[in-house]
């Protein structure tokens, strides 16, 4: 049973460099159980999804991306992808809600679309999150569109996420009456409801953890629902707690290590043994720092999930591996 | 006599010698060069730009220079490491700098900087009107590009003041944590094209005089905008745009002046990256853009490199050993140590090959590789240590 079975909209954020796009992709694969349709969206014009899944750059159009991680019985769902850009979202919005026809074209001709999407404050965010809202709350206006079981948003970074989702505040202040105001209020209702969860990706290092703490405080202030914390790039755990402590203290039994390395069929040299012991000591020191940060994260009282650091980098296969780990830990 | 020319022929193809590499980045030489007046640190988010900027500024100050570091949104701890609880828009002296130099630190307050531009350009009455306009408030505090405009504006201000009063001989600038490193350079261009945009000119027209330009097409637009957004929205917008006209004409020129300042001698760009494909790709875009625009690129800094393993045992051999131990159910400690070793070798090899690819595509870029530190920087000593690591790259 997933920890987030009531959630339709999974928003994935994180400090730059923590791997939020990787986590968003893995989560989408993990959520795609038998028969499910999952939509993975990106809003930052980066084409990160296309790169990660090794497909052509995505248009403003829902595309079948791949199949999800198989269930135990082999059943699997489908992951779709959508690259949302503000200009297309505005034109679509206008035609869907206003049937503007001639006026829609005039807006484009007079540079209003360009104006609205490049500078009109907050409007950009509303258009992007508005499209996400539309995908979650599909209605009859979008005929023949897929009803998704879950939507995963590869969102802007932690520092901007509250502002991004807080459309009521942003546009509400500008458009005081009228349909935009009503619609941004409706969007806000979804974003603040238990059907949305904002997950934060972090590393077990001081700065990203601090940013996660600040991010959670911001979300709570804006009454946005805090989801889980995904701890990414966790160091390998190849040493037992006891040996780890000994490595840190420099008290690992050198002779024993020598004889064991010999038993492994590797030629024992002083340089090799020195190197291995020193590497172990450094590793133990960093593991201790990780443990400190893990405590800090645990104290936040939010469900946490961990993903390992991949020495060879993250490729498509690794995404499925991550998806499996997220499922095992109950995130999907 | 027939000359033997074959030896002098350059081989082409896969076995040809590589293009000449620029080698290591000499940070100390850059800082010691008194003609270096501005150092801009740029790169994608999360690569340690702010910390690098602060460490460079401290190192320069301790070599006797008068330095100010302009940070954008530093982590609280970094501000504290410079002994300053709350950085703000005014340079504050950093205590504990060794030697005759000095170091001031400040943090860009985007809204404050924007307000000051408005106040300096408009009459008090008009300024009040603008500052209260909801579009202005949203633009000055939240628009994604404002930070870049304001970082440039602030850099220009500090530079003018420093030249007049001789307060600083080196300005180190951190750039906003944008998705793309290019956003910083694109800011003035985007501002200009916005101000020259058709819609802005149309909105300004009625404010300027008789509404001659209110064509049928335009009223169609205003009508539909009113329908969607409400009449007040359009009124606020029109007021805002007409204010832009009076206030920001000068602003555009200033942004362009700062841009040419960045192209001038005396400016040095340092591109900061992490040994990750995304960060290095951004760095590559940036390097290409700098050379296109004739901007002075000093080098690439690759932060957070994994430490080199000390013994040369290849990963495959270590893992083969682990396999043998596992089959025999023996040697738990060695198995763990060898797996860790293999993991580290793989990491380092991957990072090296990423850097190697970058260098093949951009052989002209001097590079400094800085190993990852175990913890964060908490004090000046920590910044000093990073400065040493930056400088040490030239000596290895």
From TrEMBL, chain A:
Protein name: ATPase
Molecular function GO terms recorded: ATP binding; ATP hydrolysis activity
Source organism, top-level taxon: Bacteria
Domain ArsA/GET3 Anion-transporting ATPase-like: 9-191
InterPro entries found in the cross-reference section: ArsA/GET3_ATPase-like, ATPase_ArsA/GET3, P-loop_NTPase
PANTHER family cross-referenced by the UniProt entry: ARSENICAL PUMP-DRIVING ATPASE ARSENITE-TRANSLOCATING ATPASE (PTHR10803), ATPASE RV3679-RELATED (PTHR10803:SF31)
Native organism: Nocardioides immobilis
Pfam families assigned to the protein according to its UniProt record, in alphabetical order: ArsA_ATPase
Automatic annotation (TrEMBL), chain B:
GO terms, molecular function: ATP binding; ATP hydrolysis activity
Domain ArsA/GET3 Anion-transporting ATPase-like: start-end pairs: 38-311
InterPro entries: ArsA/GET3_ATPase-like, ATPase_ArsA/GET3, P-loop_NTPase
CDD domains: ArsA
Domain of life assignment: Bacteria
SUPFAM superfamilies named among the record's database cross-references: P-loop containing nucleoside triphosphate hydrolases (SSF52540)
Stretch list, region Disordered: 1-20
PANTHER family named in the record: ANION TRANSPORTER ATPASE-RELATED, ARSENICAL PUMP-DRIVING ATPASE ARSENITE-TRANSLOCATING ATPASE
Name assigned to this protein: ArsA family ATPase
Organism field: Nocardioides immobilis
